[in-house]
From TrEMBL, chain A:
The gene is PIGK. Pathway: Glycolipid biosynthesis; glycosylphosphatidylinositol-anchor biosynthesis. It holds the Pfam family Peptidase_C13. It comes from Carlito syrichta. InterPro entries: GPI_transamidase, Peptidase_C13. Belongs to the peptidase C13 family. This is GPI-anchor transamidase. One of its GO terms (molecular function) is GPI-anchor transamidase activity. The active site is at H144, C186.
Automatic annotation (TrEMBL), chain B:
One of its GO terms (cellular component) is GPI-anchor transamidase complex. GO terms for biological process: attachment of GPI anchor to protein; GPI anchor biosynthetic process. Component of the glycosylphosphatidylinositol-anchor (GPI-anchor) transamidase (GPI-T) complex that catalyzes the formation of the linkage between a proprotein and a GPI-anchor and participates in GPI anchored protein biosynthesis. Binds GPI-anchor. Gene3D superfamilies: Zn peptidases. Keywords: Disulfide bond, Endoplasmic reticulum, Glycoprotein, GPI-anchor biosynthesis, Membrane, Transmembrane, Transmembrane helix. Pathway: Glycolipid biosynthesis; glycosylphosphatidylinositol-anchor biosynthesis. It comes from Carlito syrichta (Philippine tarsier). The chain crosses the membrane at residues 297-325, 399-420, 440-463, 483-504, 538-560. PANTHER family: GLYCOSYLPHOSPHATIDYLINOSITOL ANCHOR ATTACHMENT 1 PROTEIN (PTHR13304). This is GPI-anchor transamidase component GPAA1. It comes from the Eukaryota. The keyword Calcium does not apply. Heteropentamer. Part of the GPI-anchor transamidase complex, consisting of PIGK, PIGT, PIGS, PIGU and GAA1. Interacts with PIGK. Coiled coil: none annotated.
Length: 375, 561
């Protein structure tokens, strides 16, 4: 009985191991509006970039498209910064932002070429989406939009039908395993209405007919810093670390109508897995799964049903505890920088000497006779 | 002449002569240069001079020359492709010293900020609007009005917007905004909305046409006050004068406003810090712009600071008035056509070919003479006053300015005597229906002129249409002649000008007596001519060369024998 239980547990672990089916993560983050008063769209995109990078996706797997340069705009009273919280609490620009498509290169044509892979051969590697059929891709778009379209740079638009067709091209060319599409614009839900390819999950900041509102203006900078939906998504993501088990259902609850004024929406009918089994880090992070095991696990095509072929080997080997994940860094503590309980160690020689000096001076001044009041 | 026998005018003239001998006030150029440089701006000066067509009554000299001083604050991190202008006009009679002080304080404050993306030009001009016109012409490298200005040595890119400031005291009770510009041009409504937003934010009291906004729009008071403000704006726009330096900026499609600080007897006063904050806010918002102001209306009428009437609502009114002229012309055309057909039918029995050519030939030639003579009178009205001022001063004891005005009035009145003296020019075989053809031509001429005027300066077009169209439509030689004559004289362009002056002062709650009104009328005539020559204002040529001949044609129709 014990043996079969152990077997089932191992198989369950293995099932968990291959739960999501992806092996690499990509992110395509797009900000489509220029001009100084659209500061908040650049801040939105940069805050998602920051979270995604923090959770492990490297720059080589992120395609960042920013339509305007806010950090070095002559109107920026704090040059080289892009703030997401007022009173300049959080600078999302940082030191190592790598923008792949900048300024006038952010066009509908370039965006669709990135998605579908129809890129001229001279394009550098950093501007390509080199995903395969085991990639989970996060696509985040923000800017000004309307019912069924998203405006690029005040001169052109991408419609929801074009986007849906681009995703279908990606599916047919097996360029993604699963896709998470997040959009923060006015009437954002209209953009995911037309999707028809499998394995796509979509989130939007507002329904058709609603406007997405901005969060708060900063009086020193003079513009609105973030949009509400992305602000609360950023707050939510700040709590995530690479080994979080938070799932998509929690992301759907972010920014209810009381905080966001608009009603965020989501679409999961094209997605094959249940959202409660989908981890946030499946899309936002690049979590490598490593498990050390000495047993042989035979995998069937259908991960639902697994034969137990262990029963034969079980009789031969001794009962061993299944090994868990290798000892990992205490990530939660590092990221949140909670005060660690360090081991006490005696103070260094310099500090001892300094204190001795102070005590000597004290007793010299006040005389040794006062010692009796201490002891 | 009787004018100099007036003791008031003699005293005024004596005072002027006295002032001529005293040293004239001049802009402290060196001090301004030093102060602006100490603040940290790039300082340049520009000298200009202008030969006036006749000496202005207040200045009494032909040649006006001066110096403009301006400092440029360069944007720290942007290429100097665009700029904003803060200008303070200075002249000898209206001291604008407080505004210069505020300008320098703002310059010092702006110099310490790093968020400017456009250059800011701080401009102090001499001789009020003459200096502004000289600077603008040199900046845009054109010569529109014949002013001689030295070329500018420092330039800052295309001007996106300008604000002109006039303050006479260091505390203000309210800020008045002027939007009407030269030839009735208006800035983009967004600039006015910007000003109004900052007034509300800063809790500053802001007025339009000197009137406060009425809070109560549900009862009759609000709309009535709005109507008064609207009429004031119509009158000011129709006059075509630049009511401040902003009016001259508008010619170059630079959106501009003039802000005037008013110090009345109200108890609550604002100091210059409040005014400065408003200006700083406006400039910071203008700094954020990436394109020229173009989203809002360029043609509008304002019943209140936060309400406007767009062109789509008010243009049909002018259209309907001009339709009256068109319909009347159509009626006359039909009547002429019937008369021609009637002649055909009667002449069909006895030698039709002999009657036709003479009838039509006489019709045309009988029209050419009145047209030419009326137009010649208009040209005389335009050219003779300024040309003949020296001759007039030799023969009559009047100053040049008065000579110009009196010549204007004389030629205008001489036109009234035309029909009696020009009948010998007209062919005696002119048929009785000739007046119909003349009236037809006059109606079409009037409709064309008023239509063109209404498109560019709606207020002027509407005002003239409202007065001239009814009388033009009913004028005919038959019927009560003295009544029609009186009506026609009362709606002539000069009478409209006189009437609108009285109406303007009435609306401003400072009504005029008849004598005062007449003096103001004479001054207005002189100013109109002067502004045409110095700034290119179009009211004088439009009235003299366009509407006066047209009106004379109707006068000829009325006195047709």
């Amino acid at each position: 009985m014990w043996a079969s239980f152990i077997c089932w547990w191992t198989q369950d672990q293995a099932e968990q191991f291959f739960r999501s089916g992806h092996t690499n993560n990509w992110a395509v983050l797009v900000c489509t509006s220029r001009f100084w008063f659209n500061y908040r769209h650049v801040a939105n995109t940069l805050s998602v970039y920051r979270s995604v990078k923090r959770l492990g996706i490297p720059d080589s797997h992120i395609v960042l498209m920013l339509a305007d340069d806010m950090a070095c705009n002559p109107r920026n009273p704090k040059p080289a910064t892009v703030f997401s919280h007022k009173n300049m609490e959080l600078n999302v620009y940082g030191d190592d932002v790598e923008v792949d498509y900048r300024s006038y290169e952010v066009t509908v044509e370039n965006f669709l070429r990135v998605l579908t892979g129809r890129i001229p051969p001279s394009t550098p590697r950093s501007k390509r989406l080199l995903s395969d059929d085991r990639s989970n891709i996060l696509i985040y778009m923000t800017g000004h939009g309307g019912n069924g379209f998203l405006k690029f740079q005040d001169s052109e638009e991408i419609t929801n039908i074009e986007l849906a067709d681009a995703f279908e091209q990606m599916w047919q060319k097996r360029r993604y395993n699963e896709l998470l599409f997040i959009i923060d614009t006015c009437q954002g839900a209209s953009m995911y209405e037309r999707f028809y390819s499998p394995n796509i999950m979509a989130l939007a900041s507002s329904q058709v007919g609603e406007d997405s509102l901005s969060h708060q203006p900063d009086p020193a900078i003079g513009v609105h810093l973030m949009d509400r939906y992305t602000f609360y998504v950023l707050e939510f993501l700040e709590e995530i670390n690479p080994d979080s088990q938070t799932n998509m259902n929690d992301l759907f609850q972010v920014c209810p109508k009381s905080l966001c004024v608009s009603t965020p929406g989501h679409r999961t009918d094209l997605f094959q897995r249940d959202p409660k089994n989908v981890l946030i880090t499946d899309f936002f992070g690049s979590v490598r799964k490593v498990e050390i095991t000495t047993e042989t696990i035979s995998l069937q095509r259908d991960s639902g049903i697994m034969e137990s072929s262990h029963e034969e080997g079980q009789r031969d080997e001794e009962l061993m505890e299944p090994l868990k994940y290798a000892e990992q860094l205490p990530v939660a503590q590092i990221i949140h920088q909670k005060p660690k309980l360090k081991d006490w160690h005696p103070p260094g020689g310099f500090i001892l000497g300094l204190w001795a000096l102070i005590i000597m001076v004290f007793f010299k001044t006040y005389g040794i006779k006062h010692m009796k009041f201490i002891f | 002449m009787g004018l100099l026998s007036d003791p008031v005018r003699r005293r005024a003239l004596a005072r002027l002569v006295l002032r001529l001998n005293a040293p004239l006030w001049a802009l402290p150029v060196a001090w301004l240069e030093r102060t602006m440089q100490s603040v940290g701006l790039e300082v340049y000066t520009q000298s200009f001079s202008r030969q006036l067509p006749f000496p202005d009554e207040t200045h009494e000299r032909y040649m006006v020359s001066g110096t403009n001083v301006y400092g440029i604050l360069r944007a720290p991190r942007a290429a100097s492709t665009e700029s904003l202008v803060l200008t303070v006009p200075c002249s000898s009679d209206s001291t604008n010293n407080q505004a210069v002080g505020l300008l320098l304080a703002l310059a010092a404050h702006f110099r310490g900020q790093i968020y400017w993306a456009k250059d800011i030009i701080f401009l102090v001009t001499e001789h009020d609007l003459l200096g502004t016109e000289a600077w603008l012409e040199a900046y845009h490298d054109v010569n529109v009005t014949g002013i001689q200005s030295s070329p500018l040595q420092g330039r800052a890119g295309a001007i996106q917007a300008a604000v002109a400031l006039e303050l006479s005291s260091d505390v203000v009770t309210s800020l008045d905004v002027a939007v009407e510009g030269l030839n009735g041009q208006l800035p983009n409504l967004d600039l006015l909305n910007l000003f109004q937003t900052f007034c509300q934010k800063g809790g500053l009291l802001c007025t339009l046409q000197g009137k406060l906004q009425s809070q109560d729009w549900t009862s009759l008071d609000g709309p009535l006050q709005g109507l008064q403000t609207l009429l004031l704006m119509v009158l000011r726009q129709a006059s075509g004068r630049p009511h401040g330096p902003h009016g001259l900026f508008l010619r170059y499609r630079v959106e501009a406003l003039t802000l005037r600080g008013i110090n009345s007897f109200r108890q609550y006063k604002y100091d210059l810090v409040a005014v400065g904050k408003t200006l700083e806010g406006m400039f910071r918002k203008l700094n954020h712009l990436l394109e020229r102001l173009h989203q809002s209306f360029f043609l509008y009428l304002l019943p209140a600071l936060s309400r406007f009437v767009s062109i789509g609502l008010y243009m049909p009114a002018a259209g309907f008035l001009l339709l009256v002229l068109g319909l009347k012309a159509l009626e006359l055309w039909m009547q002429l056509h019937e008369a021609g057909v009637g002649l055909e039918e009667t002449g069909g029995g006895s030698g039709p070919s002999a009657l036709h050519p003479p009838a039509q030939g006489v019709g045309l030639t009988s029209l050419v003479a009145p047209l030419l003579i009326s137009q010649a009178m208009g040209v005389a009205l335009y050219i003779l006053p300024v040309l003949g001022q020296h001759v007039a001063t030799q023969h009559f004891p009047v100053a040049e300015a008065e000579a110009v005005v009196l010549t204007l009035l004389a030629i205008y009145a001489a036109g009234l005597a035309l029909p009696h003296s020009t009948h010998w020019v007209v062919s005696p075989q002119a048929p009785d229906r000739g007046w119909m053809a003349l009236k037809l031509v006059a109606l079409i001429y009037l409709a064309l002129q008023l239509g063109c005027i209404a498109l560019t300066n709606f207020s002027l077009g509407f005002l003239l249409a409202a007065t001239m169209v009814p009388t033009a439509a009913v004028t005919k030689p038959h019927g009560p002649r003295p009544l029609y004559a009186a009506l026609l004289v009362l709606t002539s362009p000069a009478a409209t000008l006189l009437g609108s002056l009285f109406l303007w002062r009435e609306l401003q709650e400072a009504p005029l007596s008849l004598a005062e009104g007449w003096q103001l009328f004479l001054t207005a005539l002189a100013q109109g001519v002067l502004e045409h020559y110095t700034y290119g204002a179009l009211l004088f040529p439009l009235l003299a060369l366009g509407l006066y001949p047209c009106w004379l044609l109707f006068w000829n129709v009325l006195f047709w024998k």
